[in-house]
């Protein structure tokens, strides 16, 4: 459902590198990591996908707001961060931590992802 909206242009994912395709989400077992532009229109559309288009019913996943978090690039303006957090009712974190035992962010040193 998220790919459908991203392919249609109504939901904007991000490019992780200049030559990479646009990434709107990553699916892992029973979790989803969504990657998107943090503007108000995009956040509202994402919220609509979750609620109005019934993403949870279609995917079989449930949103756990206590476990959910927003992480922004350092270039994201403070007002955009606040708008996104308010729109989605999800808290912002300064470090996304680890997922499945690996750090979510590892910077420019790719071996940092496996050496702790």
From TrEMBL:
Top-level taxon: Eukaryota
Protein name as it appears in the record: Reverse transcriptase
Naturally occurring in which organism (per UniProt): Acacia crassicarpa
């Amino acid at each position: 459902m998220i790919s459908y909206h991203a392919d249609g242009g109504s939901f904007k994912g991000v490019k992780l590198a200049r030559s990479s395709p646009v990434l709107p989400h990553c699916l892992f077992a029973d979790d989803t990591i969504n990657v998107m532009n943090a503007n108000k229109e995009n956040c509202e559309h994402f919220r609509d996908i979750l609620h109005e288009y019934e993403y949870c019913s279609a995917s079989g996943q449930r949103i756990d707001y206590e476990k959910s978090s927003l992480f922004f690039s350092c270039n994201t303006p403070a007002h955009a961060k606040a708008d996104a957090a308010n729109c989605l009712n999800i808290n912002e974190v300064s470090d996304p931590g680890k997922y499945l035992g690996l750090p979510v962010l590892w910077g420019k040193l790719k071996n940092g992802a496996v050496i702790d």
